[in-house]
Amino acid sequence: MPNTITTDLLVIGAGPAGYTAAIYAARASLSPVLVAGLQPGGQLMITTDVENYPGFASAVQGPWLMEQMAEQAAHVGTRIIHDIITTCDFAPADGGPFRMVGDSGDVYLAKSVVIATGAQAKWLGLESEQRLQGAGVSACATCDGFFYRGRNVCVVGGGNTAVEEALYLTHHADHVTLIHRRDSLRAEKILQERLFNHPKVSVVWNSEVREIIGTGTPSVVTGVCLADTQTGVEQTLATDGVFVAIGHSPNTGIFRDVLTLDDEGYIVTVPGSTRTSVPGVFAAGDVQDKIYRQAITAAGTGCMAALEAERFLAHG
Ligand code: FAD
Ligand code: NAP
Q1: For 233-254, what is each residue's pLDDT tens digit?
Q2: Interstrand relation of 152-156 and 33-35 (parallel, antiparallel or unpaired)
Q3: Whose C-alpha lies nearest to ligand 2, atom 26?
Q4: CB 286 near ligand 1, within 6 Å
């Protein structure tokens, strides 16, 4: 029998943005309900060292940091529910509260909503990439790196994630090849330096992955076919694993018909605020931010969203 959960503020998402919104809302006596989704803790659950979240003199582990945020949110009075929101009605015909339905069948009625559903890994879109997932193709070095002890792997991408994944994989693999489609990386300089100075790493510039090669029965990754972006010349590189690290897409599928999104699917917010196209619905973190995409900026906008929701509930 589905339950109906009624609240002043529903937070959708359990990453830095969602937990921070919940902490501020709970301390404002709004008794928030937070629905955690498929990945409680969000993206930092799949990384190791976090060195740039203020407050810690040395690196902390991503999962540990997120555990602390969850405990803090619960401690100040957030009700955390393990469910996934599947539909949202932000314009209910009866003029009543916003109505969300979870995968569990439970119904959530809320006077205001903070959306903090974050983002997820992008894929190259190759048939071979899809076919060989779990057989040598991965988007998470911290989850799968262990399986490549003593082997050779590739990482595709040129951002912070790709460089961090490559450096992490050096703990396990014999050799790591970073494949990038341009001749310079967009990763932070300090990470680039570590990468270029690492004896186990080489970089293949100006190259796109045309195909991931699998052999055997069942097929496992044995190589990649690369094309030079300037000459078109193809080459095959032998490898035991391919880690795709080419960025993220916002988790906004369920908001497509109910909120204004931009061309890339990010929720549009009023500049300088977390207000969306629907009064009373706020968006924080990576789901509305394609520029900064950091844990601290997600937490910062989570704080803004809670303060704006508090004002909305008080004054409309
Ligand atoms: P997320 O962390 O993406 O969390 C989204 C939450 O929404 C999840 O809990 C998910 O379960 C939930 N959700 C999604 N859909 C639904 C739904 N339908 N119903 C209910 N819940 C839902 N940033 C740094 O500052 N420092 C770093 O060192 C760093 N390292 C990183 C390493 C990796 C490998 C990656 C991928 C990212 C890293 N980042 C780092 C970026 C940082 O993780 C993100 O900017 C941050 O997690 C964004 O927080 P968020 O709360 O917006 O969303
Ligand atoms: P990103 O910064 O968007 O970088 C994506 C990389 O993948 C780019 O180099 C891009 O190439 C490449 N790429 C994109 N599509 C591709 C395709 N189809 N084929 C081949 N290459 C492709 O993404 P990210 O590295 O995941 O980082 C996301 C956000 O999280 C960033 O804001 C980042 O700062 C943050 N983050 C921070 C840390 C940290 O602070 N330590 C760690 C991880 C992530 P081009 O360069 O040519 O565009």
Answers
A1: 999 999 999 999 998 899 999 9
A2: unpaired
A3: 247
A4: yes
